[in-house]
Amino acid sequence: VADIVAIMREGKLVLVERLDTLKQDVRELTITLKDGEPEPPRPPGQVLSERYKDRQWQMLVRGTSDDHLAALRAHGSVSEFECRSPTLEEIFVAYMNAKDPDPIPGSVLS
């Protein structure tokens, strides 16, 4: 396994980052809303991808602190909250599918 990961999209580098830093900074959030709630609160940081079905939202988010995650978990609109570390493949796919993959602050490219 490599120590540093680079992601290119359409011939442009969008990310060069240490693997351990990247995996530590990106989280997959699964948020189930209470009945009648239109959408979850936006997490701070960069939302790399998101999808939803009915009351459940799934997002790959970069740059969200543990304190922000705790606030999301406790938000009045949230019925259930799960957080996990995504695989490198899931992170890669999120960058490939992003509409405008801006370089991340703190990465080698910013």
Structure description:
- By secondary structure, the protein is of the alpha+beta class.
- Helix content is 24%, strand content 39%.
- The chain is built from three helices and six strands.
- A hairpin with a 2-residue loop joins β1 and β2 (12-18).
- The chain is elongated and about 45 Å long.
- Residues 104-110 have low confidence and may be disordered.
Which characteristics define this entry?
alpha+beta, 39% strand, 6 strands, disordered C terminus
Tell me about the largest β-sheet.
4 strands, antiparallel
Percent of residues in beta strands: 35-45%
Low-confidence stretches: 104-110
Strand order of the largest sheet: 4-5-3-6
Please give the alpha-carbon distance between the first and last residues: 24 Å
Total DSSP helices: 3
Number of strands: 6
Class computed from helices, strands and strand pairing = alpha+beta
Mean pLDDT: 88
Measured on Cα atoms, how large is the radius of gyration?
15 Å
Kindly state the percentage of residues in helix.
Answer: 10-25%
Order of helices and strands: EEHEEEHEH
The best one-word shape is elongated
